[in-house]
Specification:
about 550 residues, Alpha-D-Glucose-1,6-Bisphosphate, Chain A, domain 3, TATA-Binding Protein, 3 domains, 7-stranded mixed β-sheet, 26 strands, about 35% helix, binds alpha-D-glucose-1-phosphate-6-vanadate, phosphoglucomutase (alpha-D-glucose-1,6-bisphosphate-dependent), A-D-PHexomutase_a/b/a-II
């Protein structure tokens, strides 16, 4: 095995965003582009002699990238690589495998909910030994290396069969091709009441899980149809495709329309299923859908927190909970009632890692259809669906009944996110700068018929490692707890995406349409930021 040292030149813009480095496939196909980033990881994190987990969501370019990374790992002295068969490992499965096998880190190949295929997106992310996304300190260091890199190391070829389970040698390095589902399925069986869920299915209840032709398919099929006895065919779009069937693998009401139609009774031959769910490209997001309601992710976190002790893995209660800043305060109300801490972090799962490691929180979530717990260090789509199935099976209540009972007890936080995608980057920055400039004048003034109580640019001081993260989103909070939040996306690959998050808490009026309940805030959010004037956009491209 000859190690080659290949001269290279730095590329601009290899800065990881909210969740790794995401670019168009065509950008990743440039010679040396992926290699530079991977070498920057090896130069930043000492992985000589280490065990590394490797896999991706199966999108176009996944297999090419797996081969390159295995050859670079061998050249950089890695001792052992655990790679998912076919190059497939969901994001939560990577986290699970890192933890279970005591690996030193992992590389995940995914652009998550972004579309795939030759014209779609690709991405790469480094996870640390706790199984979670590398914190900013490490991603900043990786980025610094990419700016000055002059060479990378690689071996010419790696002889192993990615499609056949087993142990291979690549020079001195071991490559273990592992079943992508086994470790994850075993962990799920430790957390949930499989007997109760099995009995629920055996009683004739039905489920539709839309894997959106992405990574959750094999996991959902094994667990739901295989181990839990859901009728074969309950998992739809269950085979991962390189282009996700041409769809946007994003489980939200805008992109999982077939599922929503089925749950409203539209296309199902025997009426709507009892339980609806979907997951994203790399299986870390989830959407839970009842016959009547789509469960908003913020509500999902709150309902799970309130009922966690019904799930065996959480029977002893929760140490605390955490939510990203734009996520609604529904879970805060539950935490207060339970007498546990509730942490507010910046957007992105990496900010939950320290809190989870320190045992300060058990559950965490984001408004972007992300929910998770201390069982791994990533958000976890199939896990969230099993949580809800466990609650439904244990209580005998439907998704809609659980949700309505929750609102009746704790009040309802009407919530919506309006995205203005692919807007001009200069205009987007001007909009945010304009809001920042206005902040000092806002407190005490009236907007949407209410008084503004707080207006700031959210900053976070990590209570564990004391790192400081500034400029994490503009918050406008009203006297009654309503909020408007603005931030720019850190995962897009086309211009800029402005996200406007809207929240209105209500104690008594519980059955309004969310967009109607939020109408005054929506109008105010457009006016305050002059969205139309600065971006030319009359309306958002996606509403969730
Ligand atoms: C988005 C979401 C954020 C999530 C991130 C990664 O980031 O808002 O909550 O953690 O995607 O999710 P941004 O910066 O575009 O708003 V995943 O499932 O795409 O890895
Ligand atoms: Co994802």
């Amino acid at each position: 095995m000859t190690i080659q040292t290949i001269p290279t030149r730095a590329f601009d813009g290899q800065k990881p965003g909210t969740s790794g480095l995401r670019k168009k496939v065509t950008v990743f196909q440039q010679p040396h582009y992926l290699e530079n980033f991977v070498q920057a990881v090896f130069d930043t994190v000492p992985l000589a002699g280490a065990t590394l987990v490797l896999g991706g969501d199966g999108r176009f370019h996944n297999r090419v990238a797996v081969d390159t990374i295995v050859r670079m790992a061998a050249a950089n002295g890695v001792a052992r690589v655990l790679v998912g068969q076919g190059g497939l490992l969901s994001t939560p499965a990577v986290s699970c495998v890192i933890r279970k096998h005591g690996a030193d880190g992992g590389i995940i190949l995914s652009a998550s909910h972004n579309p795939g295929g030759p014209d779609g997106d690709f991405g790469i992310k480094y996870n640390i030994g706790n199984g979670g996304p590398a914190p900013e300190k490490i991603t900043d260091a990786i980025y610094a290396v990419t700016q000055t890199i002059t060479e990378y190391r690689i071996v010419e070829s790696a002889e192993f069969d990615l499609d056949t389970l087993g142990r291979y040698s690549v020079g001195d390095m071991i490559v273990d091709v592992i079943d992508p589902v086994d470790d994850y399925a075993e962990l799920m069986q430790q957390l949930f009441d499989f007997d109760a869920i099995r009995a629920w299915f055996a009683a004739g209840h039905t489920l539709r899980f839309d894997a959106m032709s992405a990574a959750s398919g094999p996991y959902a099929t094994r667990l739901l149809e295989g181990l839990l006895g859901a009728t074969p065919g309950s998992v739809v779009n269950g085979v991962p495709l390189e282009d996700f069937g041409g769809h946007h693998p994003d489980p939200n009401p805008a992109h999982a329309t077939e599922l929503i139609d089925a749950m409203r009774g539209g296309s199902a031959p025997h009426g709507a299923p009892d339980f609806g769910a979907a997951s994203d490209g790399d299986a870390d997001r989830n959407m839970v859908v009842g016959r009547k309601h789509n469960v908003s992710p913020s509500d999902s976190l709150a309902v799970l927190a309130a009922n966690a002790t019904l799930i065996p893995g959480y029977a002893n209660g929760l140490a605390g909970v955490a939510r990203s800043m734009p996520t609604s305060c529904a879970v805060d109300v539950v935490a207060e009632e339970l007498g546990i801490d509730c942490f507010e972090t910046p957007t992105g799962w990496k900010f939950f890692g320290n809190l989870l490691d320190a045992g300060k929180v058990t559950l965490c979530g984001e408004e972007s259809y992300g929910t998770g717990s201390d069982h791994v260090r990533e958000k976890d789509g199939v896990w969230a669906v099993l949580c809800w199935l466990n609650l439904v099976a244990k209580t005998g209540q439907s998704i809609d009944e659980l949700l309505e009972a929750h609102w009746a007890r704790f009040g309802r936080h009407y919530y919506s996110r309006h995205d203005f995608e692919a807007i001009d980057t200069v205009a987007a920055n001007a909009l945010v700068d304009g809001l920042r400039a206005k902040l000092p004048t806002l407190v005490g003034s009236q907007l949407a018929g209410k008084r503004i109580a707080l207006a700031d640019d959210f900053a976070y001081d990590d209570p564990i490692d004391h790192s400081h993260s500034a400029k994490q989103g503009i918050r406008i909070v009203f006297d009654d707890g309503a909020r408007i939040v603005y931030r720019l996306s850190g995962t897009g690959t086309d211009g800029a995406t402005l996200r406007v998050y809207l929240e209105q808490p209500e104690r008594d009026r519980l059955d309004l349409d969310a967009q109607e309940a939020l109408a005054p805030l929506i109008a105010a959010s457009r006016e305050l930021a002059d969205i139309k004037g600065l971006t030319g956009r009359e309306a958002p491209t996606v509403v969730t």
